[in-house]
């Protein structure tokens, strides 16, 4: 069996290596989310086909074919370098593929490109205080009033709500239907009047999660993905992408390389940590 990538892929790897080498000086440490530098870098990655590679051009992607080997090569070469990696997160990894699959043309045009560029940060409004594992029992209410949804209720464990411009949110719109058939999937701008965000402080002192309260929050009726009452289907499409993004081997690889760099730069009693046999042995076990 020939396990070589072959000339086409070897050539592609050289292209990626050369891009990585040319951009080794790019440093975004300290740059806030949505800063011009971050957005420009994200766009550079898209323009070169190193991010959003198979997303159609008309929605802001590179417009290339799906090629798993090329995707692997990009991830491998980026992981070996300290250049900034493409952004991830709930918008890019979960909402964008959901919209490409199930969104309207207007929704794709409005949200996919700015999300890929890192200009819109999203949060996921699924969990509620009494609806976690049994998510379909959720009670946040959405009622249609003319051409607007009026939303009342509470979400919890909403990561990134503090920074988010938008929320993809599950609400009960058909209270008389069986629970899985009474849910709709709405796109809610987080600056809409009536939204209150309360960070949840953890034992560490950090606040990575939030409670989000909705009081008579009004959004356009068109901000629904899929049909009324079919939000469970859309929610599961999103969850498929969430599961795919967990335990990402590229992230693990990046962290391992960062650990090795740290062990090379830190010293104990004047000796590099990586040169100490006991730590070297531990590193090998982690690897
Ligand atoms: C890192 C992280 C980030 C998150 N980010 C978000 C987010 O951005 N947006 C969002 O909406 N949610 C988010 N969540 C919330 C997550 O989806 C909830 O933790 C999940 O819904 C579980 O809900 P719960 O905490 O109420 O647990 P519960 O549902 O109360 O479960 C508690 C325990 O009981 C067990 N259990 C539940 N039902 C049964 C049963 N019938 N039989 C046997 N055992 C059972 C569960 O397995 C669990 O061990 C996040 C969670 C984590 C850990």
TrEMBL record:
Keyword Ribosomal protein tagged: no
Span of domain Acyl-CoA dehydrogenase/oxidase N-terminal: 7-119
Keywords: FAD, Flavoprotein, Oxidoreductase
Cofactor: FAD
Protein name: Acyl-CoA dehydrogenase
All residue ranges annotated as the Acyl-CoA oxidase/dehydrogenase middle domain in the record: 123-217
InterPro entries with a match to the protein in the record: Acyl-CoA_Oxase/DH_mid-dom, Acyl-CoA_Oxase/DH_mid-dom_sf, AcylCoA_DH/ox_N, AcylCoA_DH/ox_N_sf, AcylCoA_DH/oxidase_NM_dom_sf, Mycobact_Acyl-CoA_DH
GO MF term set: flavin adenine dinucleotide binding; oxidoreductase activity, acting on the CH-CH group of donors
One GO term describing the cellular component: plasma membrane
Region forming the signal peptide: none
Naturally occurring in which organism (per UniProt): marine metagenome
Keyword Flavoprotein: yes
